[in-house]
From TrEMBL, chain B:
GO BP of this protein: peptide transport; transmembrane transport
NCBIfam families documented for this protein: oligo_HPY, PRK10419.1, PRK11308.1
Family, as annotated: Belongs to the ABC transporter superfamily.
Keywords annotated in UniProt: ATP-binding, Nucleotide-binding, Transport
UniProt KW Nucleotide-binding keyword: yes
SMART domains from the UniProt entry: AAA (SM00382)
SUPFAM superfamilies: P-loop containing nucleoside triphosphate hydrolases (SSF52540)
Domain ABC transporter: 21-272, 390-629
Any one GO molecular function term: ATP binding
Protein name per UniProt: ABC transporter ATP-binding protein
Length: 325, 709
């Protein structure tokens, strides 16, 4: 085909048209992709960065830490009972001589794993249910939203507490499923709302008019366009799942012995908080720091992904004021 | 328009001699991720009392920012330097509370979007009264302000003003809202009115009404007006002086007639040449300005327009040219070092642009030589009906009415032909389009695509037919999935229709070249492209399956004029090369005249006039077509001032309750002028579509030709 290459409007401001006859002017550096922009904005938020480092550090510590320690969570050191932290037992020992570091790491491991899985499962379920309800509407929407409403009014804590004797002795994975089952509903509602607006966008219509089946449209066009919401949601969900699990375990409904989680440790050692503080402070401290870090990262992600965030501008204003002074 | 009985009070301050507004060397910059954006760079202008200054430029040229700076409405992060003198008083550096005394009282503003300019929770009357009360606490009683609000609404031509003052903004149509905003703007008899794209969000017929109203407002208040627009047509007949902005600076200013007839800056030339003209019958060469406005973060030295300029020489890159006097006139200034050479060309205005920019008329396609009757019908609609039920009640839904969105429309499109479908918003254009694209059995009538009746299709055949029909949407931002690379976007239809990987990999770069983009850009995301480029990508996607018919839903209305010309040229080129048929939906009649072979005018779900484009435009038979055509401004000040405008009264009636007989009769000037017995025909009988001339039908009982261009 002999077409005159119309370089027309192809000289991008972002340097999209390097080499074209029209951009004789030097182009500014590298193209600013969306990913890079989000990264830059995220990096600018120091608190979120600290949070990210803490989270990654804690996952590493929980899973690698036990290999570095000579103690295990299910063996006891019969030469040290209720010892405060010292060189041999850096977090001290409990009343039967178990190393608190090994115990805390094991608890942290379990809690973080449960948190991560619950967040992944609940966000996935929310995305699928919400997008399906919003895209098809009609009967599918009514049925799915009815389930959402039903689950929202059920007291999740009570139900899991009542069911706990049933899954005693079975895999901890059942607990993950139970927690996830009660955590996806609100997100599913938000996803449904966003699907309703996305459905009216022209690229979704274009896909429909070219004969793309509904399931592909949802997977290819609708869910990826909610990625920022889903990422933020999953992050925050990790925190709340960890909290829910510790809450349940504290009352003895969650993770069952001999396995431990942060919740069981806190529950067991709560009464020793004033007398033998190391028994309580280490698991509790890890819990608090972790949830705090998750929220910082969540905030940072929201600011970075939200184009209307004003953090940057405020910062520059401050800079100019300082210069003027 | 009713004559005003309102007595505006004498200004509190003594009248200052000289210009109302004097802007000197204004600079505005904003912080951004990429560095400081120099939105306005050394802008100077003045407005005298009673004068209309038009500011024209592409989006991002700094025209809105400069006027927001005058109003003191820029965010606190903006850095403003220079001088803005209003009636001799400096405005820069004044506090917000001080400016508030001037804003709305002495300077008022009319915004682009009338919906967001009014508060939804207060009645329109209250909001206008508030505008008065806020500046005259104590001096005016509440009752007097309310009375004044009604008078103002009456002045801006809202019928039943006393009743309508109690209505909420959502009960007003777009045009009425803009009237209310103008009423608010003139409530305090300001000395300066700034209108920021006051008609962009409105339909052409309403646009004509609003422009007329602004003129009235100016006569009543004697204020200076600054009108900001991107449409050179709008200001041609209205403005006294014009200022063309580019990259945050004025590049040409002068008297309206001088600029339209002897533009001396290549950018102005290009702008003038890029507008399709409603009053030009023969094929006109449209000038696309290549490239796009420079990024305002770090401008290279030299003329900012140089990268896009056809007349660029080495000297252009050394320094930014200052505004200099041209043609020996102290009114006309242009910022170009080659103004003398432009003046030396023989042609004037748009023709000079075509000459300098080297635009050519696109050739007619091969198929156009075959007589229309012998070509195959690509798309046929026969009395297609689409209605929506209006339901009420929460538990038991009762049907309380029907919206007749499309009330039996008939047209066909033959191979290699473009049909323009025009009409105001709400007339059923988009519904018709969706009916065609949905390929479902219509509620009434028949749709056939390539000779196949849509009602008889099973899902497999329907899927196959989708290959031959594709769509290009209006909004280039929304029509491409931001999460897919351009390669995936263009490949999607081929993947759906089971093309092999190799075939797709071969075809995609080919399509990119076809629409004038480089295949190297395939791995980029839509966000990295400009509006015009994205529209080209949308066209490439539409052409991927080699369709016979492309449905274009306002494909250029979201683009800047300079870019628009490039896309129109591309569409014409493709049509001629690939023998495509277009269904071109638009509200811009000038674009339709340029690109279409036939045109169908829709009003309230019905086609009122259809036929060969030159016949319809040069000799319109239906009063609605005449009104539509006369409402479109022509970018030629001399012609524009001589034209007689047919102003339609009111807005489109609700399609849930259309008027009996002829649907247009409620707004028809012809109907109003008829004797009562003839009027009865309009009220009782629905006019059938009758042949008026070869390939020209109109649905009016009393059709007569009226020249409006």
């Amino acid at each position: 085909m002999t077409v005159i290459l119309n370089e027309g409007d192809s000289a991008g401001t972002t340097g999209a048209a390097s080499g074209s006859p029209v951009d004789a002017a030097p182009e500014p550096g590298k193209a600013m992709t969306r990913g890079r922009l989000v990264l830059i904005r995220f990096m600018r938020n120091k608190l979120a960065l600290v949070g990210l480092v803490l989270i990654v550090g804690m996952y590493l510590m929980a899973f690698v830490g036990p290999f570095l320690s000579k103690w295990s969570y299910d063996t006891q050191d019969y030469s040290a009972f209720l010892e405060p932290p010292y060189a041999d037992h850096i977090f001290g020992t409990d009343k039967i001589g178990t190393d608190m570091f090994a115990l805390t790491m094991r608890g942290l491991q379990k809690s973080l794993l449960i948190g991560l899985l619950v967040a992944l499962i609940s966000t996935t379920v929310a995305a699928i249910v919400g997008a399906t309800a919003g895209y098809f509407l009609g009967a599918a929407d009514k049925a799915l939203m009815w389930v959402v409403d039903l689950l929202l009014v059920l007291p999740s804590f009570l139900i899991i507490a009542i069911l706990s004797p049933w899954f005693r002795g079975k895999s901890w994975f059942l607990l993950v499923i139970m927690l996830a089952a009660f955590q996806w509903m609100i997100t599913a509602r938000i996803v449904r709302g966003m699907t309703l607006t996305l459905k009216e966008r022209e690229f979704v219509k274009a896909a429909k008019f070219m004969g793309q089946p509904a399931r592909t449209i949802i997977a290819k066009h609708i869910v990826p366009n909610m990625a920022s919401l889903l990422i933020i949601d999953a992050t925050i969900n990790v925190g709340s799942a960890v909290l829910a699990e510790t809450g349940l375990s504290y009352f003895g409904f969650g993770v069952q012995s001999p396995d431990v989680s942060l919740g069981t440790l806190i529950g067991l050692n709560a009464e020793s908080a004033t007398t033998f503080p190391w028994l309580f402070l280490f698991p509790a401290g890890f819990l608090v720091v972790f949830v705090l870090a998750v929220n910082w990262v969540g905030d940072g992600l929201r600011d970075a992904l939200d184009p209307t965030s004003t953090r940057v501008r405020r910062k520059e204003k401050k800079d100019t004021k300082e210069k003027a002074a | 328009m009713t004559t005003s009985e309102i007595q505006f009070d004498v200004p509190a301050d003594p009248v200052v001699e000289g210009p109302v507004l004097q802007v000197e060397d204004l600079h505005v910059s904003f912080p951004s991720e990429a560095g400081r954006v120099q939105a306005v760079r050394g802008l100077s202008y003045h407005v005298s009392p009673g004068e209309v200054l038009g500011i024209v430029g592409e989006s991002g040229s700094g025209k809105s920012v400069s006027s927001l700076a005058v109003m003191g409405l820029l965010p606190s992060s903006a850095r403003i330097t220079g001088s803005i003198k209003f009636q001799g008083r400096e405005l820069i550096g004044r506090g917000d509370s001080e400016l508030s005394k001037i804003r709305g009282r002495r300077i008022s503003m009319v915004f682009q979007d009338p919906l967001s300019a009014l508060t939804p929770v207060y009645t329109v009357g209250d909001q206008i009264a508030e505008a008065i009360l806020v500046h005259r606490k104590g001096a005016v009683s509440k009752a007097a302000a309310a009375k004044r609000a009604v008078e103002l609404l009456d002045l801006v031509g809202i019928p039943n003003a006393a009743e309508r003052a109690k209505a909420f903004p959502h009960e007003f149509s777009g045009g009425m809202r803009q009237r209310a905003v103008i009423a608010m703007a003139i409530a305090n008899d300001p000395d300066l009115i700034i209108a920021d794209e006051p008609t962009t969000a409105l339909d052409v017929t309403v646009q004509a009404q609003v422009l007329q109203l602004l003129e009235t407002a100016q006569e009543v208040t004697g204020a200076g007006i600054v009108i900001i627009t991107h449409d050179l047509g709008v200001v041609a007949g209205f403005a006294d002086r014009l200022m063309v902005m580019y990259a945050g600076r004025a590049v040409e200013k002068g008297k309206v007639d001088e600029i339209y007839q002897q533009p001396r800056m290549p950018y102005t030339l290009g702008l003038l040449g890029s507008i399709p003209r409603l009053d030009v019958g023969e094929k006109q060469a449209l000038v696309p300005i290549t490239g796009q406005p420079p990024s305002l973060t770090d401008l290279p030295p030299g003329c900012p327009f140089a990268p896009r300029c056809p007349m660029v020489v080495d000297a252009c890159h050394t320094a930014e040219p200052p505004l200099i006097e041209v043609d020996g006139s102290d009114e006309h200034h242009a910022a170009c070092i080659r103004t003398g050479e432009i003046a030396a060309t023989d042609a004037e205005g748009a023709e000079a642009a075509a000459e300098i920019f080297g635009a050519e008329v696109v050739e007619e396609p091969e198929i156009a030589k075959v007589p229309r009757e012998q070509r195959d019908i690509v798309l046929g609609l026969d009395h297609v009906v689409k209605e929506y039920a209006v339901n009420k009640g929460v538990v038991f839904k009762r049907r309380v009415g029907t919206v007749h969105a499309v009330a039996g429309i008939t047209f066909d499109i033959r191979e290699g032909e473009t049909l323009g479908l025009v009409g105001e918003s709400g007339c059923g254009k988009t519904t018709t389009l969706m009916e065609i694209l949905g390929l479902e059995k219509p509620m009434g009538g028949e749709i056939s695509v390539l000779g196949t009746n849509v009602s008889s299709l099973d899902s497999k055949r329907r899927f196959e037919i989708r290959r031959d029909m594709s769509v290009v949407f209006q909004d280039p931002m929304a029509s491409l999935d931001p999460r897919l690379t351009i390669n995936d976007v263009i490949a999607e239809p081929m993947q759906v229709h089971g093309y092999s990987k190799d075939a797709i990999n071969r075809r995609v770069p080919e399509l990119m070249r076809l629409v004038g983009l480089r295949p190297e850009q395939l791995s980029r995301y839509p966000g990295e492209f400009s509006g015009g480029q994205r529209q080209r990508i949308g066209i490439a996607r539409a052409l991927a399956l080699e369709p016979k018919l492309v449905v274009l839903d306002e494909p250029v209305s979201a683009l800047d004029v300079s870019i628009q010309a490039g896309v129109i040229n591309l569409l014409e080129e493709l049509k001629s090369k690939l023998g495509l048929a277009y269904l071109f939906v638009a509200h811009d009649l000038s674009v339709v005249r340029h690109i279409a072979d036939r045109v169908a005018v829709m009003y309230l779900g019905k086609i009122v006039e259809i036929g060969e484009v030159d016949s319809v435009f040069d000799a319109p038979r239906h009063p609605y077509t005449q009104a539509l055509l006369s409402a479109i401004p022509i970018p030629d000040p001399v012609k524009e001032r001589q034209r007689e405008r047919i102003l339609l009264t009111g807005d489109l009636p609700s399609p849930a309750n259309p008027p009996s007989g002829c649907r247009f009769r409620t707004r028809c000037f012809l109907h109003a002028s008829l004797p009562p017995e003839k009027q009865r025909t309009c009220i009782e009988l629905e006019p059938p579509r009758e042949v008026q001339a070869p390939d020209h039908e109109a649905a009016c009982h009393f059709a007569q030709i009226r020249q409006v261009l």
